[in-house]
Predict the 3D structure of the following.
Amino acid sequence: MLKAEPRGWFPRWFWPSFAGPASIWLLLFFLLPFYVILAVAFGRLDQVFLTAEPVYNPLQWNTGPFRDVLGQLSDSRSIAQLTFVRTLGYVGIATSLCLVIGYPVAYFIARHAGRAKTFFLVAFVAPFWISYMMRMFAWVNLLQPDGYVNRILTALHLQSSPRLFLNGKASTVVMGLVYGYVPYMILPLYGMLDRINRSTLEAARDLGAGQVKTFFRVTLPLSRQAILAGCVIVALPMFGDYFTQTLLASTRQTAMFGNLIVSSIESSLVNQGASLVIVMLALLMIPMIYYLRSTKAAQEMADR
Amino acid sequence: MSASASSLRAWIMNPWAKARFLWAIAVAYVLWTLLPVVVAVAFSFNAGKAQTTWQGFSLTRWYADDVNSVWQNTELRSALFQSLKLSGLVVAIAVPFGVSFALALDRWRGRTAASVNFVMLFSFITPEIAIGVGLFLLFTQAIQPALQGFTAQVFGLSMYEMAYAVIIVRARLLSVGREYEEAAMDLGASPAGALRRVLLPMLSPAIFASVAIVFAAAIDNFVISQRMCASAQCQTIPILIYSSARRSPLPSLNALASITLFASTLVIGLAALAYKRASGREGKKATAVPVGL
């Protein structure tokens, strides 16, 4: 007897209807907001009050204010460009540091933790459910002039007077970014390193490669995809981060691109804020799509 | 001192031992990530007002007693309730929507499903500030500004955190397969009955896990909550920490932050136990829960 086609048991509309609520939610609160961003950025400006008037018809869009923002970003003396370049620098350095710190830790948990593996896994997952604000707030208190970091450094005679870590130091902001986002780097790296088959490594060793050579010829090439994915997933939120900078420095000299967006929105220059968001998303589009494609490929590989 | 330092050095550099260097890095990493938080929690039990000097242990000063405790200070208490209300509502919307969306994706493998899924994953990796600004403009420019505040926070966050539930439940659906509900329908169950009596109970560990992770993510959310909030009434705990961290806060702020930490740890721990028990009963290897992403 032929087995009936299982699909036939459910009415055709049955499963698609399950996507309804979520699709409506995404349409209303994800896609529509982006359309409003476009409508505001390409909308009119009130001549007297300089308030934005969104224009919803794309045929009447006015690119003038948006081009002004682009002009500012390409003017090498403007604050906007300075902030933009600084953000690229911070994100670049912080992402590299995340990789330098994250890779050995992920490698250790995947290969060498032994019986302590569960402990290390819990310890490394913990930051995901500890509030980001609380983690930054903890550093604010530690880095105060009379905080523990200064006291320890003074007690060890590494400095004679307390250092003002929180007065607009770029290094503090970069440290904060690394601290905040490094778990997101470890996650894909650990996932990849844990999946590498031990027999592959043993084969390399049997063929005469030493520990170091096995690492460089086998492990590192196999984890290349995860390294890229980790860098993207760490760099994306860093690029839009504004709160780390505000908490740990809050000076003009350390302001990031996110601060630029927030300050234009908060000072009612919504038009400028919307344009800056468009610029940011246009730049991040390629890494975002790359990330989605690479995780999709990894997912399909895991399903097989 | 120098003798112990050189023996430590010898211990680390010993080429015959296994990965001591990596051990040292990993232990240092764990200390670096967790010690600051431990210190912050410890200061929520400080007897004095200082944030940087330990003045003795007091169990309830910043939690219940006094005029400045979480319970007595109106600003702190209102933030606590606001956070709980917000994350409760977000869980109540995002988890059912996410579960039903995961079912749709798994069973209705059309091109439309794939593109909606793409949009959802896109929403998940878009820098939050872009979503925050978009929602802000939607509520202030396009819709009634009166909706800004708590309602807008609920709408925006339930959209943003939905993806966690979808990802977790989909992973579970892959391991469950279709056989059970097909068997139920062979035995005469209606589609809705098979879903309710067979599939949903099998998904319950994944649903528990989604509730926990969405709750923890919502209670910690800062960017979207802050962009949607223009008044003191909708201030949540992260917003309050952000706005008062730099202007000499009291340890009761630590107490408030610690309460969120305890709450999410409790919820995540319970969900992990439930997940382990449910998947242990089936005698299968537990599907990895993608924590964080």
Summary: The two ends of chain B are 45 Å apart (CA to CA).
